[in-house]
């Protein structure tokens, strides 16, 4: 019984790691598709999102089965509870990567964002990829330093989010900027920022699992 | 023991209902603040959001305690699992109401959205208020007809979301439209649309609780 239990917990963990790898791949390709208007890459990301959704449902089901059959306590219980929130966050990160890819897809062959913002989106995309990489390593190693790193790294994402908003709203009038570009840039800015928020959410849940406390309320953004 | 258990389950349910009432109040006031640029109403909604966050953490903690002390099975287990996803959805609905209020707050005394879109936002706000009302009643009555109503009502919200996006992107150039208005309208449009998505997510979780199956993957949007 005990052995089956440990095996099931390991299966949940490897499921989470597998999803985080898919999410890392999705945001890497979505950022490339968005900044280079690569439509076939965007299609790939959009198509692959379903696999992430299916995997999260599978891990959730495993978690419910463990609750039912094993009645876990202490850290094991917190692991399952944390897992259910982490799958939701990973699933949303996959959605957001697909949303970024959709923006690249929809406006093709035009660029998805004003040229002046190209560097901003390149940078925030790289920061998101780095967050996804940390999440992957956190789920593998449970190294608590990575929790702090993920929370700290969110500030740089928020900073770029603010800069893009300021850039977009600094002009009194849009003049000859295509409105579609402003709309797309506003949405992309939001998606890139939310992606990192979910990484922070996963980091907090990991801390909850390790320490038993959820010391801070999730950020409102 | 059994009596304590039933009392704890009832406490979780009444906690969910209380949060849904707060969310209903928040989206009602946020919509009014946004469409009438009422800054003090907006401040109220933003200030009250912390209460929603605190209540969701309290209900989650109760859920974990029940898992630990009672090892629920069957419908009771599904109720607790569903609760943890429903609190997350309710918390996000509160955040989105606060985001709408923040848009009203930031651009004061200017209107937050182009005048041509005023009716659209009025209507989608009303649809969201109606969704919050259905969620409230669903949590109280567990009436499965409300599940279908919530899922069906999301289509009208998506339709307005599409119309606003089309309106915003139909002009080749923005001309004399203030860019800040386009940015705000884009964000408001997204917030109103997401609010209803979370209502659908709650409806699906309620069906999972009742029937034990989660027949559809959560919508990507």
UniProtKB/TrEMBL annotation, chains A, B:
It comes from the Bacteria. GO terms for cellular component: cytoplasm. InterPro entries: PhoU, PhoU-like_sf, PhoU_dom. Keywords: Cytoplasm, Phosphate transport, Transport. It is found in: Cytoplasm. It holds the Pfam family PhoU. The keyword Cytoplasm applies. Belongs to the PhoU family. Plays a role in the regulation of phosphate uptake. NCBIfam families: phoU_full (TIGR02135). Homodimer. This is Phosphate-specific transport system accessory protein PhoU. It comes from Gulosibacter chungangensis. The lineage of its organism: Bacteria, Bacillati, Actinomycetota, Actinomycetes, Micrococcales.
């Amino acid at each position: 019984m005990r052995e089956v239990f440990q095996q099931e917990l390991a299966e949940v963990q490897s499921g989470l790691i597998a999803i985080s790898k898919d999410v890392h791949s999705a945001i890497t390709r979505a950022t490339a598709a968005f900044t280079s208007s690569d439509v076939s890459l965007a299609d790939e990301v959009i198509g692959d999102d379903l696999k992430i959704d299916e995997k999260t449902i599978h891990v959730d089901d495993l978690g419910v089965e463990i609750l039912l059959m094993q009645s876990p306590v202490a850290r094991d219980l917190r692991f399952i509870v944390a897992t259910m929130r982490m799958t939701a966050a990973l699933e949303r990160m996959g959605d957001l990567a697909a949303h970024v890819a959709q923006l690249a897809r929809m406006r093709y062959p035009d660029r998805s964002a004003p040229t002046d913002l190209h560097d901003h989106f390149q940078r925030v995309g790289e920061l998101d990829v780095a967050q996804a990489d940390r999440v992957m390593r956190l789920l593998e190693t449970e190294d608590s330093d990575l929790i702090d790193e993920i929370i700290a790294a969110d500030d740089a994402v928020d900073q770029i989010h603010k800069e893009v908003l300021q850039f977009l709203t600094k002009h009194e009038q849009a003049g000859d900027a295509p409105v579609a570009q402003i709309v797309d840039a506003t949405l992309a800015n939001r998606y890139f920022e939310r992606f990192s928020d979910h990484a922070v959410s996963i980091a907090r849940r990991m801390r909850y699992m390790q320490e038993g406390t959820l010391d801070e309320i999730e950020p409102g953004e």
